[in-house]
Design a protein that fits this description.
about 140 residues, mainly alpha, 2 domains, two-stranded antiparallel ribbon, about 35% helix, about 5% strand, binds iron/sulfur cluster, binds zinc ion
Length: about 140
């Protein structure tokens, strides 16, 4: 999955004390941030975007490091993603955000693997056009 450093949402990261009281997820079922491994990529993105809109996102990421929580989704990142960035020596405020996989040609979001940056339907269109050119030459 591609990542970017672009900040999304209302990150202040400076809220201390009862930061959980300012969390977007404060009234949600805690299981929301512990999705089953079989969760689909689209569903995962809904949770990510939920976190991206949270004003205590950075504080939540910091807390995840402090309590060594490498399982739940925090700040829009899965536990595995956060652990990887942490092991690479990044501070929570440097953890890059995932980018929605988008086709470089039609700009549609796709959950299927992109090849050479292209979605399946654009690849087929390009292959057909190449074949037509071959036949015509
Ligand atoms: S970043 Fe996500 S998990 Fe963390 S407090 Fe905000 S909504 Fe909850
Ligand atoms: Zn496409």
């Amino acid at each position: 999955m591609a990542f970017t450093n672009t900040a999304v949402g209302l990150d202040s990261g400076t809220i201390n004390g009862d930061w959980r009281g300012a969390a977007v997820c404060k009234d949600e079922d805690p299981d929301l941030m512990y999705p089953l491994p079989a969760i689909g990529p689209g569903e995962l993105w809904l949770i990510r975007e939920y976190c991206f809109a949270c004003q205590v996102r950075l504080r939540c990421l910091q807390d995840g490091v402090e309590v060594s929580d490498w399982e739940s989704i925090r700040g829009g990142l899965t536990g595995r993603e956060r652990a990887k960035h942490y092991r690479a020596g990044l501070e929570p405020h440097e953890f890059p955000l995932p980018v929605k996989p988008t086709c470089a040609v039609c700009f549609r979001v796709t959950w299927l693997p992109l090849r050479k940056g292209r979605c399946g339907s654009c690849r087929v269109t390009e292959q057909r056009a190449a074949k037509r050119e071959q036949v015509a030459s």
